[in-house]
Design brief:
405 residues, alpha+beta, six-stranded mixed sheet, 9 helices, globular, signal, Pept_C14_p20
Length: 405
């Protein structure tokens, strides 16, 4: 199956709408999310800010008051973590997520702001944020969760290590993070094993962020069990090259989402879509993973650079019922029906995604109008959200871009 074949198949079956909800939370939750991509002296990490935005949406859907900061300087970083002190009296759970560069020196770990120059090993303590400092700041809060999607390829660490080797001395700086001791009811999770390098991801998000955002929605799953599932996903996607690591002394159990009685609230993370890699050439395959509410019957469409619509029938997707109650639709490389790029496929930026089929809509005119409205939204920069369909209620849609070179 490829995009050229797909354009000849336009069978639309509309049968179900969509409504999703997640339980409210009595406890007070706060998340600080930081994504650093635009490093002034180390180039760009394309996905770090994307990962921060994805995780901010996930935390908010789970009832966390969330601050998300991107491309923060040393001063901004310090101000943000210092502000956590003001939340001691009324916060039950704090989460800290960081995507960007990190390194270790003499067994201690440091997170790197975007304005760090790091011209020498001695500058590390002055120009970075110590993980030990963050641990001490969040420790007084009853439950604390730290997620470090850092330790991606680090030019400063590589340069310092090479300089040490050329001088025939042992390097105090190492790639990746060193093992740390969690304190109290604290979980610290590395996106990869200590002393190892994590992947920035071939799509729009890192493997760790994609999986964590998915599994946070799984109801009635204790966080240590949930992280085992994240580990399994990341290892599968990276063919075993990256394995997340949990460091914990937690005695209390924590659940991102518990079902049962109580007040409910709208789930801002209704569906999650991944399209990767971001750039493909003729002969390569495009992968799609969409987790949608069980009440949503998704119609998958590729929008070409000249706004032509290429439907991708659901039968081409592997469908799996998730523990969260959602359905996963997946096309991956090597599957029976692959999305293989052909010579005839238009070059440029494509938008691939889905919309939930409006229940009861069968008239071709109505179908065309809905598709036209979705394309207009995408063109206006609104690649995901809810669309009002007169007479048929709201439907969810979501699209991601990729480029055919």
């Amino acid at each position: 199956m490829n995009f050229s074949i797909c354009i000849r198949v336009f069978v639309l079956i509309f049968c179900a709408g969509m409504l999703a909800s997640s339980p409210g939370h009595a406890e007070k939750r706060y998340a600080l999310v930081i994504g650093n991509s635009a490093y002034q002296s180390a180039g760009v990490l394309p996905n770090a800010t994307n990962d921060a935005q994805l995780m901010a949406t996930a935390f908010r859907a789970m009832g966390f008051e969330t601050d998300v900061l991107v491309d923060v300087t040393e001063q901004q970083f310090g101000t943000a973590i210092d502000a956590i002190v003001d939340k001691y009296d009324d916060t039950d759970v704090v989460a800290f997520y960081f995507a960007g560069h990190g390194l270790q020196k003499d067994g201690k770990n440091y997170l790197v702001p975007v304005d760090s120059a790091l011209k020498s090993e001695s500058s590390i303590e002055r120009e970075t944020i110590s993980l030990d400092t963050i641990i001490q700041i969040i420790k007084p809060i009853p439950i604390s969760l730290v997620f470090l999607d850092a330790c991606r390829n680090n030019p400063w660490a590589d340069r310092m290590i090479q300089r040490s080797l050329s001088g025939s001395r042992s390097a105090s700086v190492k790639r990746g993070f060193a093992v740390v001791q969690a304190e109290g009811d604290m979980l610290i999770t590395y996106a990869t094993l200590p002393n190892s390098v994590a992947s920035d991801g071939s799509g729009q998000n890192s493997p760790f962020a994609r999986s964590l955002a998915r599994h946070m929605r799984t109801p009635n799953t204790e966080v240590s069990v949930l992280m085992k599932r994240v580990t399994s996903d990341v290892m599968d996607e990276t063919l075993g090259e990256q394995r997340p690591q949990q460091l914990s002394q937690m005695k209390k159990e924590f659940y991102f989402r518990e079902t049962g009685g109580g007040q409910t609230q709208t789930d801002d993370l209704r569906a999650l879509l991944t399209v990767y890699p971001a750039k493909v050439s003729v002969g390569q395959e495009v992968s799609v993973v969409a987790d949608v509410p069980s009440a949503c019957t998704p119609m998958f469409v590729n929008v070409t650079p000249d706004n032509k619509l290429i439907p991708i029938p659901r039968k081409f997707f592997r469908q799996v019922a998730m523990d969260s109650g959602q359905m996963r639709y997946e096309i991956s490389p090597g599957s029976r029906y692959g999305l293989v790029v052909q010579d005839s496929d238009a070059k440029g930026i494509h938008q691939l995604g889905f919309l939930c089929e409006p229940p009861g809509m069968t008239a071709k005119k109505d179908i065309r109008n809905v598709l036209k409205s979705v394309v207009s939204r995408i063109s206006a920069g609104q690649a995901q959200g809810m669309l009002d369909t007169p007479g048929f209620g709201q439907i969810e849609y979501g699209f991601k871009d990729f480029e055919i070179q």
